[in-house]
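Reopening: MATE family efflux transporter still failing for me.
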Amino acid sequence: MPSRGPARGPSLDREILALAVPALGALVAEPLFVLVDSAVVGRLGTAQLAGLALASNLLLTVVGLCVFLAYATTAVVSRLVGAGRERDALQAGIDGMWLAVVVGVALGVAAWLGAPAAVGALGGTGDVATHAVTYLRASAAGLPGMLLVLAATGVLRGLKDTRTPLAVASAGAVVNAVVNIALVYGAGLGIAGSGLGTALTQLGMGATLTVVVVRGARRRGASLRPAAGGIWASVTAGVPLLVRTASLRIAILLTVAVATRLGDVTLAAHQVVNSIWGLAAFALDALAIAAQALVGHGLGARDLGHVRAVLGRCLRWGVLAGTAIGVLVAATGWWIAPLFNPDDGVRAAVAAGLAVCGLLMPMAGWVFVLDGVLIGAGDGRYLAVVGMVTLAAYASAALAVGVWAPDGAVGLAWLWAAFAGVFMLARALTTGLRARGTRWMVPGA
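Support: Ran it again with your exact input. Result attached.
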């Protein structure tokens, strides 16, 4: 296929934003599930809310590690569509969704059987542990739906459709709130009703997105039957991204462990700073999702000029967005803190931590976009290797902070300088050097 030449700035900017804005909405809608569960369960009592905290963290970790189902599928589908092979793209997407169902069922069974041991490993005891196990088991049935949502969303992103996942995620957030209230209070199921309500909503979302993908597959003549070769291809593409995601999750857990070691003030303030960092990450992740789809399409079409143009424009948007968000975060830290905790020590620590985050946010924008570009190019093996390298670099810095930094504002500032500075710098260097070369730009399907 002949090259169509690099896309021009304004039109490419519109294409990036047309993908990124709906993707951001879908990303923000998902955390509303946790917020709704917290609000509903919190009225049942402190022990129930504490149990929800343990169980939801376990579920989020499991689902977070399985995000490769979306990333790998987006990369494969977008590349095949770019090559003009829409039937094969939908077939690959269907295989990825079958893999999601198989993995989801296995994890659901494991969650049911292993709930007591998993809750105990996190330190849950007494009534808190009982409620955590109850919620985890009630929500375990929803794991196939949760993973199916990831895979189907990956297919639609590969087709450059981010609006449908937004609509489904938004509707799901509303339905989840209504169903949870009905089951917890109307049916008197307590915390089990919250877990069951979330499971039913996720299964419904998975079914809805499946219908959308299946209709597209039928229109293009793709088979709905699972193909062993296609499922294995999804596995081989997903494993490196699983390793890459695991390195990020370990880094986050290490940060929490160091904050815990430094003291109660640092840990309390870290929770606030980490929550705000997470919200900022959603905005930057939306640009990464746009980069994944556009890079995959460009490589599939063998239009390397377009790929380079996407890289440059997405990086510009990432740095600009990171700068704007960083200024907002750094400037409002002192006033945001009292909304979470009235203690002056916590307030000072939150302000210090957010000032560091704000200063380094432009680099995070750069990193997130480069991550999305390389994922869209199917460069998962490289990301897996450097993920472990950057984790090792960060671990040294984080452990050093844990040894000598004091509790409070100074300690939290150093901890976030290690995470948002050392860790992000290591990721910026490794992904930036890769992007400067051409080994990741493998054209064709």
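The longest helix spans residues 264-300. If you still see a failure, please send the error message rather than a screenshot.
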